[in-house]
Amino acid sequence: MIWLGIDTANTPLSVAIVKDGAILAEVNSSMAVNHSLRAMPVIEELFETVQLKPNDIDAIAVSEGPGSYTGVRIGVTIAKTLAWTLKKPLVGVSSLKTLAANAVFFNGLICPLVDARRNNVYAGVYEFIDGELIAIHEDQHLGIEDLLDSLKGQKRSVLFVGKDVGMFEEQIMDIMKENAVIAPFPMQLPRASSLIFMAQQSGHEENTHAFTPEYRRIAEAEANWLLQQRKEKGSD
Amino acid sequence: MDKDIYILGIETSCDETAASVIKNGNEIISNIVASQIQSQQRFGGVVPEIASRHHVEQITLVIEEALSEAGLEPMELDAVAVTEGPGLVGALLIGINAAKAFAFANGLPIIGVHHIAGHIYANQLMQPMEFPLLALIVSGGHTELVLMENHGSFKLIGETRDDAAGEAYDKVARVLGLPYPGGPAIDRLAHESDDAVEFPRAWLELDSYDFSFSGLKSAVINYKHNLEQKGGEVIPAHVAAGFQQSVVEVLTTKTLKAAKEYNVKQVIAAGGVAANKGLRASLEAAFENEGIPFYVPPISLCTDNAAMIAAAGTAMFVDGQRGNMGMNGRPGMSLTSWSK
Ligand SMILES: [Zn+2]
Question: Where would I find the Gcp-like domain in this sequence (chain A) (predicted)?
């Protein structure tokens, strides 16, 4: 069984090809380069490296978000187009769960987070239970302080994962004190091999045509429109 | 041409998700368009983030439908042509990345097409292009006069200095309380009107083929404001008719003058506003008088579609143009010639 994994949800880019539970090749980078310039060339190179044709793969795993709207869409568009035209199953995995998967064997809560600007983050809370990564709290878009307050209440040790963790380190240590653990740099980037690992465990398969990113946030124009609708209804 | 050429076109530069298969650059085999107009109407215009979200939902469905309606397998295609720019960058990226993934998976070459070249080549689907050719492109984002000496050669001889014609229509429609998009609503009202308010014409310099519509838009706003101040009643149909007369007269006069100066064999109109009945009638009458062949594609090929992208893509394919997996969206892409 050969898997292709793609993660372009945030600044890092990761693509991997995994065969029968072994990594054949993986490319990881974290450069502020548009994924549209890099993603397909890297995928093309990777197939060249492992001497496979696109049709040789059996399944595709993709990071479905949350993250940069455009970034998530590039990975999802590539993955769903490949899955559809090659007639292969597609599995979407949370971008945050993929990050949390770096912390395998950590005894405690795992909090993957990504900066969402203006003191907001996309974050989830995960835990390895009997070797399986379980979501304790659903991925969400929230203020960093709200996140830390709720984690503090758990009174457990929490590992923070993600390349943006450094931006919030002071706040994290301030609020969480000795319960906070900051993941070291080799664990900060999402890895497409972990993404594939999570996809294999989920046993879930998407409806390829209907598959869309998990934005975890409605578009600003839509939020304003809904607010307007509610106001108009309220004043009637 | 010995062997037939089949090109898949993909277009997502604004709010239509479209795919089409074209044979030999001039025959439509399939032409699928998924419009977001109902969703975007809520906001009174196209919201880029919403447009991108819809494109992701529709893209593989639309391509699949284009192929199945054409009765073709991917391997029977010769290339994939996709709109590279200009347009909304987030929207362009969906079509481009779908096109790249599809081309990679099926071992096909990819060709990046300029959206306006696409609008011009929509005419190739109706009748062969004859050169020199003059194209008037009028849409929500464009008002341009382009001279073509040959396939793939584009010379911009006039363009708008402020608002595009379609943009002016949308803004004036908003002033009159008409729905989005403004073009069809104003066209209809103007057509039914028994009178027209006199608005100025923006001719600019004597020898210029450039356009300007922001002054006309201001004139409409001032007219309405002044009349309301005096307690008068604004009749939307009269304003619509006056506005449309001004736009149509300037577009027709400048296009006709350019056609004569460059001694062209064919004049074509393209873009969403080319679907406007008032403009179409005025251009048709003017060129019939002069005996210069004038064409406008049917409405479905004037508004954004992928057939036009595949048509232009075929001309590029024949000329040996190829893109690669590093293709990026180019929101401000300018119309440059691919052949001399
Ligand atoms: Zn257009």
Answer: 32-225
Show residues of chain B in contact with A37, CB under 8 Å. Answer: 326, 328
Domain B6-121+302-318 and domain B131-296, same fold? Reply is: yes
CATH topology of domain B131-296: Nucleotidyltransferase; domain 5 (3.30.420)
Facing residue for A44 by CB, picked from B60, B104, B106: B104
Task: Say which CATH topology domain A2-94+190-220 has.
Answer: Nucleotidyltransferase; domain 5 (3.30.420)
CA dihedral B66, A7, A94, A122 (to 10 degrees): -110
In chain B, which residues have their Cβ closer than 8 Å to the Cβ of A41?
324-326
**How close, in Å, is residue B73 to chain A by CA atoms?**
10
Helix-strand-coil split of chain A, %, nearest 5 = 40, 30, 30
- Does the pTM surpass 0.90? The reply is yes
Q: Is A95 exposed, middle or buried (0-12, 13-18, 19+ CB in 10 A)?
A: buried
CATH hierarchy code of domain B6-121+302-318:
3.30.420.40
Please answer whether residues B121 and A61 qualify as being in contact, where contact means their C-beta atoms are separated by less than 8 angstroms: no
> Can you tell me the distance from the alpha carbon of A161 to that of A189, in angstroms, rounded to the nearest whole number?
8
**Cα B103 to ligand 1 centre (Å):** 24
Q: Which residues of B touch A90 (CB under 8 A)?
A: none
Express each pLDDT in B36-62 by its tens digit: 888 888 888 889 999 999 999 999 999
B30 labeled part of a ligand binding site: no
Superfamily, domain A96-187: ATPase, nucleotide binding domain (3.30.420.40)
